[in-house]
Amino acid sequence: MDIEVCGQDGATLTMANEFDLFAKSIQLVGRRRYHFEAINDTLIEKVIPKPKEEKFSWWKLAAGVAAGLVVVVWAGSVVLSGGATLPAGPKVVAAATMIVGTVYVGKKVGEDIKNNHNSEPIEYMEEAFLGCMQGFIAVTNFAYLEGLGYAGLELFIAEGYISGVEGSVLEQLFRTGEVDSGKVLKDGIFGALFGAGMYGAGKLIKWIGAKIVPKIKGGGAAAVAEAGESTTPKVVDKVDDVVGAVDECNILRIIKETDNYIDYINAAGEKIRIPKQIGASIEDAINKNLNSADVGTRTEAKVADYLRKIINTKITDYANKVKNISGNTIGDIDVATEKVLIEVKTSIASVKDKQLMKYVDSTKSNYINVNGKKVILYIDELIDMTVQNNVAKIKKIQDMGIIVVNGLEELRKVVK
């Protein structure tokens, strides 16, 4: 039996008999239901208003970027002013610090635009600071490892791993206050792989610059012939007209300097040692060798003497032997000034183009061209340009980015 009673308060009471099989009894069970009017959404919105959609502001974005860049500039200035004791030059460290800091600011800009959200200026400042720290860590690690004797591929891998680990710990602590060891290991491995990739890419770029670019720039005899010009190369070129000139980025990095020598790491990652020569010792050596019985030694002295007396040019290196870390001689600097390196030969027959690679091919382990100076090949005896082998040899050398001069007068035109 069911009984349903409706009250004035909008409630309904239902009573019913239910048979309990296990207890073998009948129970009277009641249920009360309340009835309400339909909910009015406008009343809810008055009590709990809908959140307003954020409107993206380019002005706020610009303010955030400006705040981040202020931190970047500040970090760079701090490194420059207090970087005298750093393992790398202050300018290099400051540049790396500012570049990575700027990248982090740019990444924040991309996130805000993608999410249609404006971060606060303080958030941009934090990102900039974190990026600057990452850049500082990477470049100082690189220089420090160089000082410990790391070179070549092992240097890039070690630097990548250590910087990846340190950077991961720094970033995790900065963002969350906790460190995930698994992520640290993963970031270290990624850093090592990235370092190896950078080393390989650098080698490839240098190889292209040394082997491919000069050929593209220099063209060939056929191209010259099509233009109706002589295929015989000129022996003398102005410095500005050199084909495939030495890349000025291939500058050797100083890792140690004493009163007697300077140790460098060349672009190929090889450690080399160049003795320091003072003016008085250079003068004495030149004067002594002007009357040498050896024609090669005498010719080198003649060129150096001409430069210092006739052209009034300071000689920085003369018959200077460059050695590797094992103490083996890897090349001689015949004559050098502050702007040029001069390889001296008595005749065209004594010229071997492989000997010249130490000045122009930065992928070679015996690369010794400090500061990427222009290179001049001086040939003392008159070159017979009617001999095609001589013409071809000079053309090949010029395509390497080397100026060829025949005699002192032609040297004067190039060096002055």
Brief descriptors of the model:
416 residues; three-stranded antiparallel beta sheet; 50% helix
State the gist of this model.
This protein is an alpha+beta fold and 416 residues long.
Number of DSSP-assigned strands: 11
CATH topology of the largest domain: Trna Endonuclease, Chain: A, domain 1
| CATH domain class name of the largest domain | Alpha Beta
In total, the number of domains comes to 4
Mean pLDDT: 79
H and E order: EEEHHHHHHHEEEHHEEEHEHEH
Radius of gyration: 38 Å
Instruction: Estimate the global geometry from the Cα principal axes.
Output: elongated
CATH architectural grouping of the largest domain:
3-Layer(aba) Sandwich
Describe the biggest sheet?
Answer: 8 strands, mixed
Strand order of the largest sheet: 4-5-6-7-8-9-10-11
How far from one another are the termini? Answer: 124 Å
- Count helical runs: 12
Verbal overview:
The chain has 416 residues and is an alpha+beta fold. It folds into four domains: 2-39, no CATH class; 56-142; 150-218; 233-415, 3-Layer(aba) Sandwich (Trna Endonuclease, Chain: A, domain 1), CATH 3.40.1350. It is 50% helix and 17% strand. It is built from twelve helices and eleven strands. The chain has helices at residues 41-47, 58-82, 90-115, 121-147, 152-175, 181-218, 221-226, 279-289, 295-309, 353-360, 388-399, 408-415; strands spanning 2-6, 11-20, 25-34, 253-257, 261-265, 271-275, 317-324, 329-336, 340-345, 374-379, 403-406. The strands form two sheets. An eight-stranded mixed sheet has the order 4-5-6-7-8-9-10-11, sandwiched between helices. α3 runs antiparallel to α4 (121-147), α5 (152-175) packs across α6 (181-218) and α8 (279-289) crosses α9 (295-309). The radius of gyration is 38 Å and the shape is elongated. The chain starts with a strand and ends with a helix. The model is unreliable at 219-231 and 237-249 (pLDDT under 50).
